[in-house]
Amino acid sequence: MNTQDLLVNVINQSKHTLPSYQTQHSAGMDLRANLDAPVTLKPLQRALIPTGLFIELPEGHEAQIRPRSGLAYKHGISIVNSPGTIDADYRGEIKVLLVNLSDQEFVVEDGERIAQMVVARYERIVWRAAESLTDTERGAGGYGSTGTK
Ligand SMILES: O=c1ccn([C@H]2C[C@H](O)[C@@H](COP(=O)(O)OP(=O)(O)OP(=O)(O)O)O2)c(=O)[nH]1
Ligand SMILES: [Mg+2]
């Protein structure tokens, strides 16, 4: 543990060890499915997969639940609500809403690393109603306004 690391309370009700960073500078920790039996996802089917983890994030922090690129590339497995948001005041179980975007069945096994969790700080805002917004070079341009190549 480094001095700048954030301490996060966790209850692990899964059969698996706590998630951990796989490499020195990984942004995310891989989350494992905590299942009594494998879950089969048919093409375009989705399922809410439990992790058995309950966490208490410090105020001002969120956890983002993101897909793993390997599962996405090899099997078309993604997350419907990507990135999922775990709020600092959430005390329920972390679950992952997987979707099978391939044309073949995919079986989620107990203990499989199905997603990654990145903890980030966030800002809360208060609105200030304005009559106009500052001019910029971009203005209202978007959706490919800068060209396609
Ligand atoms: O992938 C996810 C997304 C959310 N959650 C939990 C934690 C989060 O704090 C809570 C609510 O999530 P969100 O705000 O995205 O869902 P909602 O549809 O707006 O539900 P709610 O009305 O409960 O906020 O559900 C998960 O476990 N996994
Ligand atoms: Mg919500």
TrEMBL record:
<dbReference type="InterPro" id="IPR008181">
    <property type="entry name" value="dUTPase"/>
</dbReference>
<dbReference type="InterPro" id="IPR036157">
    <property type="entry name" value="dUTPase-like_sf"/>
</dbReference>
<dbReference type="InterPro" id="IPR029054">
    <property type="entry name" value="dUTPase-like"/>
</dbReference>
<keyword id="KW-0479">Metal-binding</keyword>
<comment type="pathway">
    <text>Pyrimidine metabolism; dUMP biosynthesis; dUMP from dCTP (dUTP route): step 2/2.</text>
</comment>
<feature type="binding site">
    <location>
        <position position="81"/>
    </location>
    <ligand>
        <name>substrate</name>
    </ligand>
</feature>
<keyword id="KW-0378">Hydrolase</keyword>
<feature type="binding site">
    <location>
        <begin position="85"/>
        <end position="87"/>
    </location>
    <ligand>
        <name>substrate</name>
    </ligand>
</feature>
<dbReference type="InterPro" id="IPR033704">
    <property type="entry name" value="dUTPase_trimeric"/>
</dbReference>
<dbReference type="GO" id="GO:0004170">
    <property type="term" value="F:dUTP diphosphatase activity"/>
</dbReference>
<comment type="function">
    <text>This enzyme is involved in nucleotide metabolism: it produces dUMP, the immediate precursor of thymidine nucleotides and it decreases the intracellular concentration of dUTP so that uracil cannot be incorporated into DNA.</text>
</comment>
<feature type="binding site">
    <location>
        <begin position="68"/>
        <end position="70"/>
    </location>
    <ligand>
        <name>substrate</name>
    </ligand>
</feature>
<comment type="similarity">
    <text>Belongs to the dUTPase family.</text>
</comment>
<keyword id="KW-0460">Magnesium</keyword>
<dbReference type="Pfam" id="PF00692">
    <property type="entry name" value="dUTPase"/>
</dbReference>
<protein>
    <recommendedName>
        <fullName>Deoxyuridine 5'-triphosphate nucleotidohydrolase</fullName>
        <ecNumber>3.6.1.23</ecNumber>
    </recommendedName>
</protein>
<feature type="domain" description="dUTPase-like">
    <location>
        <begin position="16"/>
        <end position="147"/>
    </location>
</feature>
<keyword id="KW-0546">Nucleotide metabolism</keyword>
